[in-house]
């Protein structure tokens, strides 16, 4: 269930995120009190401050929830189905909605360890930016890794 990734192209707001992904780094934000926030955060929900610093996350996390998408919600995703969309809690705290690369979703369990992996988006005809996706960390016999 790995599928393909449609071409993702950066804009001004996402340029630093995709440049970091191309270097193998997952960027997140840190608020003034040290709280780590998701990459797209614009303000710290605790303080309301927009004074956020960008930092590099470990790329390690825990699987919170997932679903297998069998019907593409958008035409651009038609070639991707089926794929697994998941919520991952990063080791640093924030939750991210991610693409999870896995062959057998029936082997996934809540709490499974996951890690980031970087893939170039695009379908062969159109090439996009490198994007972070996640995969299960093998902790036993065939935990669903592709």
Please give a structural write-up:
This protein is mainly beta and 146 residues long. It is built from 1 helix and 8 strands, in the order αββββββββ. It has one helix at residues 15-22, and strands spanning 26-30, 36-37, 53-57, 60-69, 83-90, 95-100, 113-122, 127-136. The chain has a 5-stranded antiparallel beta sheet with strand order 6-5-4-7-8, with helices on one face. It has a 3-stranded antiparallel beta sheet with strand order 2-1-3. Strand 5 and strand 6 (95-100) form a beta hairpin. The radius of gyration is 16 Å and the shape is globular. Residues 140-146 have low confidence and may be disordered. It comes from Mycobacterium florentinum. InterPro entries: ChsH2_C, NA-bd_OB-fold, Thioester_dehydratase-like.
Helix content: under 10%
Our estimate of the beta-strand percent is 35-45%
Average of the residue pLDDT scores: 91
Largest β-sheet summary: 5 strands, antiparallel
Question: Runs with pLDDT <50, length 5+?
Answer: 140-146
Structural class: mainly beta
**Biggest sheet: strand arrangement:** 6-5-4-7-8
Q: Number of DSSP helices?
A: 1
Shape: globular
Radius of gyration from the alpha-carbon trace, in angstroms: 16 Å
The figure for the number of domains is: 1
N-to-C span:
8 Å
What's the β-strand tally?
8
Secondary-structure element string: HEEEEEEEE
Keywords:
disordered C terminus, ChsH2 C-terminal OB-fold domain-containing protein, single chain, NA-bd_OB-fold, ChsH2_C, 146 residues, mainly beta, three-stranded antiparallel sheet, Thioester_dehydratase-like, five-stranded antiparallel sheet, 8 strands
């Amino acid at each position: 269930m790995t599928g393909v990734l449609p071409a993702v192209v950066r804009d001004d707001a996402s340029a630093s995120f995709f440049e970091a992904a191309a270097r193998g780094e997952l960027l997140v934000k840190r608020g003034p009190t040290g709280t780590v926030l998701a990459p797209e955060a614009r303000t710290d929900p605790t303080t309301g401050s927009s004074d956020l610093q960008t930092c590099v996350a470990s790329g390690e996390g825990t699987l919170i929830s997932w679903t297998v998408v069998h019907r593409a919600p958008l035409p651009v995703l038609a070639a991707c189905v089926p794929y697994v969309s998941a919520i991952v809690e990063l080791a640093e705290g924030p939750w991210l909605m991610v693409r999870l690369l896995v062959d057998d979703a029936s082997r996934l369990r809540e709490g499974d360890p996951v890690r980031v992996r970087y893939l170039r988006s695009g379908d062969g005809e159109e090439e996009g930016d490198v994007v972070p996706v996640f995969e299960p960390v093998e902790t036993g016999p065939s935990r669903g890794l592709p």
